[in-house]
Amino acid sequence: MSESVGWTHRRSRRWRAALIGLLALLLAATVAACGSSSSGSSGKGGSGQPDKVTFAALLPLTGPNAGYGKFEVNGVKMAADEINAAGGIGGKTKIELAIEDSQASPEQTVTAFNRAYSEHKMPVAISVGSSSILALVPLSKQRDVLLLNGGSQGDELAGASDMLFSTIHLIRNEVAVLAPYLVKNVGLKRGAVLYIDDDLGRAGLKDFKQDFTAAGGQVVATASHEPGATDMRSQLARLRNANPDVLFLASYGDDAHVAVNQTRQLGWDVRLAGPSLVALPDIIADKDAEGLIHTPIVFRPQKQFADEYQQKFNEAPGHPYVGTYYDAVKVAAQAYQYAQEHGYGTDGKGIAKAISEIKTFPTSFGGDITFDDQGVAKRPIAIAIDKGGKSVVVKRG
């Protein structure tokens, strides 16, 4: 018998997301009345190609997801600097970054988008947060701004807009690999789920229940927690009472770290499992996460990339979001040039059309990524186990 714990505020959250989208459109209309209709490009070269273009990066610089934001911002900066050092897009158009703190929250992301657009009229916005990106969709359509996502994996992002492309696969792709492994390879048959109560967390819950059950397991209990929660002990205690042999964490950032720590503080030695979102370096290095079975996005950049990153940021490129956000800028730049050469225009709509036609792009991971018809990139998915503070791959994708 499956126990459901903490299913609260779902309806109110959906209404809030809808309200955010409506308020965003109203604010955008105000911005439009005050601004011009340019697309973030200014100054013309001899061939009519702009001297510069602005890409907005709406990323979490503060808040519970700032641990991801550092890697995302570094990836964006590295790609833009590399393109500019070579003369810019097509050797002529320099990229200027408008970096805004989104906190990965829908409200703050919409505010950051409108702030960037009012100043720069950018044709491209790079962001994160499934609920946040979904809140931007109506704005991006109204303003002809291409949306690029390198870190969010909520299933609802697939096909959400023809102006949205993700350089990372979705949580359903990871769970489809992880759930059967837990049942068939590790022998874990009774699962519990602790999920963050947002679009991504609910997608993880749905996917795990479906794939774990299909593989022969049973989901015996589920519980939710609010974003930014600092005490999950009551949910964890009730999950423990269902006697599962694996706890799947559909959470991320500081929230996931709290879940890991408080599971062990309760003296509960259940096996932990989760998607790549749980595998932050700080979590993997924490002894409480020992044995965590997860689906890492394996990032092994070529030596030149790693050396340049080390020189620029004084550290190794320690998280795949460095690569997925580097790739987002590279994809946008290549598509921008293609759109201009083919007469599509260099607003978001023209760049989106270019991505749909090019489809396959080189990446910092080595090899290529190909966008499917729903705008989602395909990448290999591995299985790893946290051993001694390191993510050790046990099954390659």
Secondary structure layout:
Layout lengths: L2 E3 L4 H25 L6 E4 L5 E10 L6 H20 L8 E8 L4 H15 L3 E4 L2 H14 L2 E4 L14 E3 L4 H15 L4 E7 L2 H16 L3 E8 L7 H9 L4 E5 L2 H13 L5 E4 L6 H4 L8 E2 L8 H11 L6 H22 L6 H11 L1 E3 L5 E3 L12 E5 L2 E6 L2
Parallel strand pairs: 1-9, 3-4, 3-5, 5-6, 6-7, 8-9, 8-10, 10-11, 11-12
Antiparallel strand pairs: 2-3, 12-15, 13-14, 15-16
Helix pairs in contact: 1-3, 1-4, 2-11, 3-4, 5-6, 11-12
Helix content: 40-55%
H/E element order: EHEEHEHEHEEHEHEHEHEHEHHHEEEE
Number of strands: 16
Report the β-strand fraction as a percent range.
15-25%
Average residue pLDDT: 90
H/I helix tally: 12
Classify the fold: give the CATH topology of the largest domain.
Answer: Rossmann fold
* Silhouette: elongated
Question: What features would you highlight for this structure?
Answer:
about 400 residues, alpha/beta, Rossmann fold, 2 domains, 6-stranded mixed sheet, 12 helices, elongated, disordered N terminus
Descriptive report:
This protein has about 400 residues and is α/β, with parallel strands linked by helices. Helices cover about 45% and strands about 20% of the residues. It folds into two domains: about 10-170 and about 300-365, Rossmann fold, CATH 3.40.50; about 170-295 and about 380-395, 3-Layer(aba) Sandwich (Rossmann fold). The protein has helices spanning about 10-35, 65-85, 105-120, 130-145, 170-185, 200-215, 235-240, 255-265, 280-285, 305-315, 320-340, 350-360; strands at about 5, 40-45, 50-60, 95-100, 125, 145-150, 165, 190-195, 220-225, 245-250, 270-275, 295, 360, 370, 385, 390-395. Strands 1-9-8-10-11-12-15-16 form an eight-stranded mixed sheet, with helices on both faces. Strands 2, 3, 4, 5, 6 and 7 form a six-stranded mixed sheet that branches. Strand 5, helix 4 and strand 6 form a beta-alpha-beta unit. The two termini are about 35 Å apart.
